[in-house]
Design brief:
Layout lengths: L6 H27 L1 H8 L4 H8 L2 H18 L6 H16 L10 H9 L3 H29 L7 H20 L1 H15 L5 H9 L12 H23 L7 H14 L11 H11 L5 H29 L11 H4 L3
């Protein structure tokens, strides 16, 4: 049977196989390092340190929800702090089980249910919050590249280029005229004619009550302590493993691996994050099994545990009608 490698087929196969890349990397690392070494290293983590690290989860999510509420108010999206927190946690759950944490955009239909605001506006709200939060991480990454400049001299300039390109993209789309023109161009060339009107209406609400750069300064600054808390939680777990990496070095190196894990080739960065940490921590004498255990235990503590709260909320407290999510009229209406 002859396979046609046209554009549609290529995209189809990429969607099918890309999520497996990270899994393959992860399996290789486990086999190469040795399951017995990894398991025995896991057992060295003290339950006391696990409890101490877990207590930092609450302040972390409260601080980040505060930053999100700040952006919501800027866009005139009126929702209580408690409801916002629940929706944030639900989005967190979906983020932990999807490539590149893309599932966190599930916040949008839940916000729609609570506020009845235009879906495009809510989509932008979630994107802007994620963007601002991630930008804080990029700044921490730049600091981390200084620490390994002796071993990886190209890390700093590459990180600067990534940051500059990211900021440029943000700057470009912050201007309504440029953004709308670009979005409508993409709709014209990429979206089938039958559903073009839906996407046009969707884009037309993107810039409704759009926040300006000044209003995002507070969320950006608030984002830094949330990342510090995340890496502090992981560092606390690492203390049980007797790592010899200073605290400041640890919390500025980890963002490099975190950003690499955002590449959407596996669920929640599995595989890419472990490979990155093995490489980065090797400069400080950390063995592969310890790097893998730090990565996995950190993921369980900061992502899975937080996402579990969102799962519980989505099961017992969410009243969203799931059938609406497949209704294009509902999802892309003005």
């Amino acid at each position: 049977m002859k396979v046609s490698f046209d554009k549609k087929n290529i995209i189809k196969y990429l969607k099918k196989f890309m999520p497996l890349i990270g899994i393959i990397i992860f399996i290789y690392l486990i086999i190469d390092t040795g399951t017995d070494k990894i398991l025995s290293t896991f057992l060295k983590i003290s339950p006391i340190y696990v409890v101490i690290a877990a207590t930092l989860t609450l302040p972390r999510i409260l601080i980040r929800n505060y930053a999100w509420q700040h952006i919501q108010k800027t866009q005139k999206i009126h929702i209580s702090y408690t409801k916002s927190l629940k929706i944030f946690l639900i989005g967190y759950f979906y983020g932990t089980i999807t490539p590149g944490y893309l599932g966190q955009m599930m916040r949008v239909p839940y916000l729609k249910e609570e506020t009845n605001q235009p879906i495009g506006k809510l989509f932008v709200n979630s994107i802007v919050e994620t963007m601002t939060h991630t930008l804080s991480l990029y700044c921490m990454m730049i600091i981390g590249t200084f620490l390994v400049i002796e071993y990886i001299p190209e890390a700093f300039p590459v990180s600067c280029i990534v940051l500059i390109v990211t900021v440029f993209i943000y700057w470009y789309f912050f201007k309504k005229e440029r953004g709308e023109r670009s979005f409508h161009f993409l709709i014209r060339i990429l979206i089938p004619k039958k559903i073009k009107p839906y996407f046009t209406r969707f884009v037309n609400t993107f810039y409704s009550d759009f926040p300006n750069v000044k209003t995002l300064i507070v969320p950006f600054i608030v984002g830094i302590p949330t990342w510090i808390i995340i890496y502090t939680q992981i560092y606390i777990l690492s203390i049980s493993l007797n790592i010899q990496i200073p605290y400041f070095v640890f919390i500025t190196l980890y963002p490099i691996a975190n950003i690499i894990s955002f590449i959407p080739i596996t669920s929640a960065g599995l595989g890419t994050r472990e490979a990155s940490l093995i490489f980065l921590f090797s400069f400080f004498g950390v063995s592969p099994e310890i790097a893998i255990v730090i990565s996995l235990s950190g993921h369980l503590m900061t992502d899975v545990l937080t996402g579990f709260y969102g799962l519980i909320i989505s099961i017992f407290e969410s009243r969203i009608d799931k059938t609406k999510l497949s209704d294009l009229n509902y999802f892309l209406e003005e």
